[in-house]
Amino acid sequence: MRACSSGLLLALAALSISAQGQRLPELPQVDTSGFLPAIRAQVELAERNARERPRDPAIAGALAMTLHAYQQYDAAERAYSRANLLDPQNFDWLYLLGAVQMAQGAFDRAVKTLQSALQVRPGDLAAEMRLAESLTAVPDWNGAVAVYRRIVDDRRECPQAWYGLGRAQAAKGDHAAAMESYGKACELFPAYGVAHFALAAEFRRLGRKTEAERHIAAYAKNVTSEPPLDDPLFQRIHELNLSSQAHLERGAELEKAALLDEAIREHEAALANDPGNVQAHVNLISLYGRTGEPGKAKQHFEAATRLNPGRSDAWCDYGVLLSMQKHFDEAEKAYQRALEINPDYAEARTDLGAIYEQLGRLADAEREFRAAIHDRPDYPPARFHLGRILVNEQKYDEAIEQLQRALTPDDDKTPVYLYALGATYARAGDRAHALEYLQRAHDAASRYGQSQLLASIDRDLKALQSAE
Predict the structure, then answer these.
(1) pLDDT value, residue 322
(2) What CA–CA distance (Å, rounded) separates 212 from 201?
(3) Does residue 327 surpass a pLDDT of 90?
(4) Burial state string for 282-309 with b = 16 or more CB within 10 A and e = fewer than 16
(5) 263 contacts 254 by C-beta, under 8 angstroms
(6) How far apart are CA 285 and CA 376, in angstroms?
(7) Rounded to an integer, what is the distance from CA 257 to the centroid of its chain?
(8) Could you give the angle at which helices 328-341 and 312-324 cross, rounded to 10 degrees?
(9) What φ, ψ does residue 310 adopt, rounded to 5°?
């Protein structure tokens, strides 16, 4: 018998039936005319590879992941399905197929797909979380509770699972359990905005206004903040996205989670794709400054101001960097330049006042703090710094008023503000209120895991308690 030509073999392969007896989905073809040139070339290469090797599950999966990276969910689903049929025991293609089904709102299908993925790799955290989210969306509250409960039993330090469990419990009407779950999520990740919002709703339902307002304030401070989920497959998809904005968004999420080295990598990736991205340069001033690399921070300040000399935030962040290095004269000039560009910049004005405070120029510092409060009445650091100056001037009533107004919203600086308020009451001779606020400072510092501050508060609290 005559051997088949390579072209005929490719044609037969494209029409072949999978090992499971199902016809393989056609390879998708996406209109790339509106894509940026680099992205168009990337997608077209993935499509070409898949057509040249139509029976290779890894190549079909690579095409699917590329399409997934650019939210081409329908086409990605077809490519993932093809990869899965070619390699049914590969966890990656099942899991990512379930993820794109979720992205399209096909939660019933996603549940079945993710259950199959977990049969291949039992206990995978990312797959279990997405399965629980899909069950919640169906909705199947009992199923969702069961999966979330399984996750927190195995991984008690997973704030996302506690939050998801709380949602499902609340939907079932078990509000006491939901409050406990939401509280655990907030405890594990204090900047978890939606968890604070959900807990505030439960407190409002019970008429506990003070607690509700505290959590609403925490939500307002962290509206978009949530803990990162360890998901290597989604990280690979993210890395395929060549758009600078995707890297900036991911970098911002990582910064909120205090993963500064990872945030830097994302911002540098954004600049690799777009060296003229001013926002990436501005963000890296602060990131490199906070990770102890002032030379790199200065390079990005110079790049940002060369591209756009009118970026007041670049000048302000550079002022912070110089202040950290004790270069106060240069920092003062940087803050003043930021304020020339944007006279209502409360952060720059407060930072300038803080320099004056350190240099003993208290009248200048007070002027800047009051101006910052005038520009932005809801900016706690300005009120805190003004309160400290007023304490030193023995103007205790006004100092207490300023420090009280610094307590909203509740965030990781609140323990310091509470501590200062307790100390101010003590200096004013109001022992009862001093004890109250020092205890609140103790509880807040404990909640935020601020061990050094906690030791100082404990020392002062014990001294005040023993002073009868």
Answers:
(1) 97
(2) 7
(3) yes
(4) bbbbbbbbbeeebebbbebbebbbeeee
(5) yes
(6) 24
(7) 5
(8) 170
(9) -95, 15
**Residues 6 or more apart in contact with residue 369 via CB below 8 angstroms:** 349, 350, 353, 382, 383, 385, 386, 389
Is residue 333 classed as helix, strand or coil in its secondary structure? Answer: helix
Reported as a single tens digit per residue, the pLDDT across 138-180 is 999 999 999 999 999 999 999 999 999 999 999 999 999 999 9
Residues 6+ apart with CB under 8 A from 222: 191, 192, 193, 196, 256, 411
Q: Is 17 helix (H, G, I), strand (E, B) or coil?
A: strand
| pLDDT for residue 19 is more than 80 | no
- In angstroms, the CA 151 to CA 416 distance is 35
Per-position DSSP letters for 20-84, written without gaps between them: TS-BPPPPP----TTS-HHHHHHHHHHHHHHHHSTT-HHHHHHHHHHHHHTT-HHHHHHHHHHHH
What distance in Å separates the CA atoms of residue 405 and residue 421, rounded to the nearest whole number?
11
Query: Are 381 and 411 in contact, with CB atoms under 8 Å apart?
Result: no
In angstroms, rounded to a whole number, what is the distance separating the alpha carbons of residues 81 and 367? 65
Q: Residue 366: count other Cβ atoms within 10 Å of its Cβ.
A: 18
Q: How far is CA 375 from the centre of its chain?
A: 28
Judge whether 225 and 192 are in contact, CB under 8 Å.
yes
Q: How far apart (Å, rounded) are the C-alpha atoms in residues 454 and 448?
A: 10
Q: How many Å apart are CA 408 and CA 213, to the nearest integer?
A: 9
Amino acid, res. 355: I
Q: Kindly report the pTM of this predicted structure.
A: 0.64
**Phi, psi of 378, deg, nearest 5:** -95, 20
Q: Assess whether pLDDT exceeds 50 at residue 16.
A: no
Quick one: tokens of 81?
A: 């399905």
**Which is nearest to 125 in space by CA: 164, 90, 88, 87?**
164
CA atoms of 383 and 368, how far apart (whole Å): 11
pLDDT(392) > 70: yes
Give the other-Cβ count within 10 Å of 443's Cβ.
14
Are 403 and 387 within 8 A, CB to CB? yes
Residue 132 in tokens: 């629980």
Residue 84 and residue 90 in contact, taking contact as beta carbons nearer than 8 Å: yes
Q: What is the CA radius of gyration of the chain?
A: 28
The token duo for 446 is 């404990």
Is the separation of the CB atoms in 81 and 23 below 8 Å?
Answer: no
User: How far apart are alpha carbons 228 and 258 in whole angstroms?
Assistant: 10
Task: Give the dihedral sign, CA 307/293/248/74.
Answer: positive
Q: For residues 459 and 451, is the Cβ–Cβ distance under 8 A?
A: no
Residue 22 phi, psi (nearest 5): -110, 140
User: Would you state the torsion angle of the CA atoms of residues 154, 156, 159, 161, taken in this order, to the nearest 10 degrees?
Assistant: 30
